[in-house]
Write a structure and sequence with these properties.
Layout: H1 6-28, E1 30-39, E2 45-55, E3 58-65, E4 77-84, E5 89-103, E6 109-115, E7 120-122, E8 127-129, E9 131-132, E10 137-138, E11 142-143, E12 167-169, E13 171-179, E14 188-195, E15 202-205, E16 210-216, H2 218-238
Helix pairs in contact: 1-2
Length: about 240
């Protein structure tokens, strides 16, 4: 049986170390994206994502309404519930809406700087929501993109509706600080997206209509590429 050369053994050790590094980086942080597209209990067609990006002690949540030229405010993203296992404390550190949009009665629209969406946060149930007070008064829910020149499909719940305008244009992000710092997407469960502005919200639970995908962080992909280059170099040396 032919013995392995010392350089080959070292090379194999290097590749094993790189593979371990890739696995560790992938486990340490990844985007967990929940998607709901279908129909809510209220009969509204919806299409939205909730992107959870974990890093040590920090969770960045991005909510996006993927609908184009929607009809009704009941299709707006208005809240989200989730559970993190093992959390001893969590706070909403910051929130941001890149752009606001105001829709006129004829479906035309104007955009402006977003700033703080002013959403509420309950640490007891870990939910964010655009609705506040006993009557669930809407405050800047997330509206999808226009179609062509404007929101030509929008009814009066969107177009020219003073209490609902302005809306958040397509997406908003929320940054949470939590402890302990070692939590990952594996500790995430109970994701439920809320739509609409009524007292009884249409909700979409990710156990019955949602799909989730895990996206490795860029550093993991880079390490994986380095590992492949190392394997190629070893093969060339042996040849």
């Amino acid at each position: 049986m032919k013995k392995c050369s010392r350089s080959a053994v070292r090379g194999l050790g290097l590749v094993a170390a790189l593979a371990a590094s890739v696995g560790f980086a992938s486990a340490s942080r990844a985007d967990i994206i929940y998607t709901f597209n279908g129909t809510t209990g209220g009969g509204n067609t919806v299409d939205a994502t909730a992107d959870f990006a974990f890093s040590p002690g920090v969770l960045t949540l991005t909510l996006t309404n993927l609908l184009v030229n929607q009809k009704d405010v009941g299709q707006n993203v208005s809240g989200l519930d989730f559970t993190l296992a093992g959390v001893t404390s969590i706070t909403l550190a910051s929130q941001n809406a890149p752009t606001n949009v105001t829709v006129a009665s004829d479906g035309s629209f104007a955009t402006s700087a977003g700033g703080n969406p002013g959403w509420g946060f309950s640490a007891t149930t870990i939910d964010v929501s655009a609705l506040s007070g006993a009557l669930h008064t809407p405050s800047r829910t997330i509206l999808g993109a226009p179609g062509g020149s404007g929101y030509t499909n929008a009814n009066s719940s969107i177009a020219g509706n003073g209490p609902h305008n302005p809306f958040i244009f397509e997406s908003a992000s929320f940054v949470f600080d939590f402890s302990p710092t070692s939590l990952t997407g594996a500790d995430l469960s109970g994701v439920q997206i809320n739509f609409g502005t009524g007292t009884d919200l249409n909700t979409a639970s990710c156990t019955s209509g949602c799909t989730s995908t895990s996206v490795p962080e860029p550093a993991s992909l880079a390490l994986f590429g380095v590992g492949l280059l190392g394997l190629g170099f070893m093969a060339r040396r042996r040849a």
